[in-house]
Amino acid sequence: MMWSDEKRRIELPSAGEATTHIEEESKEDDLRMWVSRLKSLRLGSLISGVANILVVIVGGILVLIAFPSCDANNILPMLVVSSAAAMKILIMIKTGFAQEATAKTILESLSHTILSHQRRMRYKTWLWWTRFAIVIAVFQLVGATFLMINMAKLVSNGDPSSNCVLGVASSGIEWKRKLLLIYLITVCSVALLQCFTGTDILRWRSFYESHDEVWKAHYQEVFDYRIREIMCCFGRVEYLTASEEDEICSVARLLGDLVAYRALGTGHLQLLAGLALLQRHSQSSISYEGFVEAPEERLQGAAAFYKFAEASYTGPLLDVGRNPILFPCAWLHRQGVLTPWSRNRRPKLDGDNWWRGHAAAFLKYINLSRDVLRRGRVCQDRCKAAYFILVLHHLRSVVIAVRGTETPEDLITDGLGKECILSTEDLDGLINSSLIHPDVKKSVESSFPHYGHSGIVEAARELFMQVEGNPRDDDPDSTGFLSSLLGAGCECDGYNVQIVGHSLGGAIAALLGLRLYGRFPNMHVYTYGPLPCVDSVVANACTEFVTSIVYHNEFSARLSVGSILRLRASALMALSNDTKTETALIFRLARQFLYMSRGEISKVGVKDPAENHSGISMTEDLKEHICGGSRETERDSSFRNEADSTENAAETDDDDYSNPFHEIVADLNSIGDPVSDFMDTVSRSENRSAGNPTEVFLPGLIIHIVPQRKHLNMPLWKTWRIQRTAQVHNAYIANRESFTDIVVSPSMFLDHLPWRCYNAIQKVLEARNGKHVLDESEIV
């Protein structure tokens, strides 16, 4: 027994040795943790921190040297600058810890949904520390400017010995002079450096690596808080204090999904470079031979009712485009601010201001009497559209004008781009109308469920309740407002119904028309630059009563979740295709977006492109990887090293460089456009998910108006006078599938301005009627 106890004492370490071993392991863990933190530091933050420490040390030495012979006023600038540098260091440390806590909480929140509130609070804490750091950086810049001005004044006095700090520095000791010079250079350098390094202390990638779900969650918080702050600046404080899920959370989640390319190391500037290349590659002219010209009666109707769609912008947005300098005066004039005594003679609209300015602005723009405006609403609520209902006896028409995007709430409605299921009530005009062809009706009924833009669908449902679906509860015989105007024996019995809208208003008008067509067969919807909002079956089924006008390259008619995802992928592929782009950048992006790891390739049955560029089988998994939809997990280290060595070799021989990815892209193109093929497959798939959005299309008959410049053989000094006249426009019936991708062009945003579409329609009609047709004999 004694022998066994002695043996146990020999074999087992003593308590002191065990404690020492644990302490050593703890020290090693702490050392590894600090080394990991140092590696996660951004280079700019590291340089800024070292420079601030140098400012504190050198400034303290100079103050100690000069203090016995100087009063407080002379050394005050140095004290202020050095104190600001010390405070900046402390704030950088606190910001770094807050950023680390935020990143860890985001990582943990993916598996614990209860941490979503904590994730938001962590992000807010980090954000406020970064803003505090920005304030100190601005203070340092001002302090450095004040210090240099003070030093310049001391030098201008002529006698350095009479000036405190300069006198000490010029006392004949060389190291003091150098110390003062180093101090001044460091103070100015750190103040300027901090204006360009940003506020992040740590590299987010050191925490998130290549996990795209983590990057999506991170950018969801970024967009969520930024949107709420912008809404607060517009006076919507309730958004900033909201604690539950709302529409902003949905918009932020969608935007976070769109920035998922950060998971693969692609920066925002690199994506912009790809967009620039995409714009350059898309400048080739398109031939419209074989296209059917748009029917003239549709163009005439669109031109006749366009002004009501444009007049619905009763806020200052319309005047900003037409009067960039004097738009406040123009808007106040339209609102009738200078004639408040006529308030009682103006129609009363829901949500209008005290002097009923929105009603005055609408009537002033259409130049009609107040009797035509029967009902309307100007609101700033989520998924609620502003509208105006008019009775035009001279045209025997009732017009419903729906306003487009004008308020921040309208932008939220635009951003709710995920699909939602359309109910049978939403498609009542297609299902229950006797004017719809039986084959069309059958195709709609047999292909349920149908999908639409969720924000637009919700706004159209609410608008239907306003204009028709909200009879009085205390009167069983009461009807909706439109039925009270258009019913048998009513004021507007037998009148036509025209629903018009521009941009977001046009899409809402189309959804409203889908519901009203069964009740009012004499109805037509004219939309101008609308957003894609319904699936292909519904879009084709409403061609008889919906006309969508698209002008040239305007972005809104092509804006959807799927088109943005394809644009993102196409920009990166354009960057990989370009031979003049920087070699290292091409290799990096092409490796990340066109290559797959060997494990992924063997899993989907595709040959490794590094081994053989021919015979690539474009499976759906590979297409999804190219589009950024699949998540990258582990990369084969040997393949990465092989690509890196090739990259280094290419960088050493730029003269003989040719893009090595042309063969890969050529192989991909030989089997079709991988981006389009993938998204087409997704749109047809029945298994839809958040990463694979349902494709939405423009509703109704699509008329595409295209400007075409007429080449004239005449002197240059004459062409500038007729430049506007020389631009002719043609209108064609377009295929809705041709508007599923965004066209990157310099005019993509300007083409969306309301008056551009109207002017183009006018020119098309004038050309067809033989008016103002450009003729060279008339020019001479």
Automatic annotation (TrEMBL):
Highest taxon, organism lineage: Eukaryota
Residues annotated as domain Fungal lipase-type: 400-555
Region of interest called Disordered, as start-end residue ranges on this chain: 626-657
Residue ranges, compositional bias (Basic and acidic residues): 626-643
Residue intervals of the DUF7358 domain: 38-261
Swiss-Prot/TrEMBL GO biological process terms: lipid metabolic process
Any coiled-coil regions, as ranges: none
Keywords linked to the UniProt accession: Hydrolase, Membrane, Transmembrane, Transmembrane helix
Residues passing through the membrane, by range: 43-69, 75-93, 126-149
InterPro entries, alphabetized: AB_hydrolase_fold, DUF7358, Fungal_lipase-type
Tagged with keyword Acyltransferase: no
One of the record's GO molecular function terms: hydrolase activity
Tagged with keyword Nucleotidyltransferase: no
Protein name: Fungal lipase-like domain-containing protein
